[in-house]
Amino acid sequence: METLPMTSKSYLYAHFLAVILPGMLAHTALALPEDAEQPIHGSYDNSVLMMDEGKQVFYGTAESPAEITQGSLKITGNEITIERVEGEIKKLTVSGNPAHYQQQPAIDQAMVTAEGETIILDYETQHMSAIGQVRFTQGGDLWSGCQVDYFIENRSVTTPLCDNGERASVILSPRNNQ
Q1: What is the CATH number of the domain that holds 151?
Q2: Tens-digit pLDDT profile for residues 78-93
Q3: Strand 112-122 and strand 66-70: pairing?
Q4: Bond from prior residue into 39 cis (ω within 30 degrees of 0)
Q5: Considering the domain boundaries, does residue 2 fall inside one?
Q6: Do residues 133 and 125 touch, judged by C-beta distance below 8 A?
């Protein structure tokens, strides 16, 4: 069997499969338990791996955003940055026009969706923050503003006052309509 030369693209892809994906599989606290058993799929135009910094950045465009999915988790944006420490994912940062996030956090919870200029998933604190022209939905409820913070473990949503004084807004649906 002939061995093909390793190009920089094939090296990065091989490194992604060997190093990044197992780390993603190990961190599923933000997802349904069965999400951990699902394969991770990614599509992007190009990527940069910064081994010394523990980061990999995936690039897409507004017309064809970078995308990573695993079970109910789906994130898309112009740029997706994965930060790892000792092989474990600590943070995902997604930017775009807008960046998108969706996930079902638990079997008894409705799908969460968010869009904004930037979305940050912090795996250690079980926290998702959407920043800049945010729309956040769960179970028929809609929050919007300059920032929405979602704390998954205690099922809380906060919407801080914007620096420019702009107020956040919410539309809560009657529970019998969900």
Answers
A1: 2.60.450.10
A2: 999 999 998 888 999 9
A3: unpaired
A4: no
A5: no
A6: no
In order of 14, 22, 84, 98, 116, the CA distances from 27 in angstroms are 20, 9, 11, 25, 24
Helix (H, G, I), strand (E, B) or coil at 13: helix
Domain range for residue 127? 8-177
- Exposed (0-12), middle (13-18) or buried (19+): which is 143, by Cβ within 10 Å? buried
54-83 pLDDT, tens digit each: 999 999 999 999 999 989 999 999 999 999
Answer whether residue 120 is part of any domain: yes
Residue 1 lies in a domain: no
DSSP state of 174: -
Rounded CA-CA distance 147/124 in Å is: 20
Residue type, 171: I
Count up the domains in the chain and report the number. 1
Express each pLDDT in 23-47 by its tens digit: 443 444 455 767 767 777 899 999 9
- Distance, in Å, from the CA atom of 134 to the CA atom of 150, rounded to the nearest integer, reads 12
pTM over 0.85: no
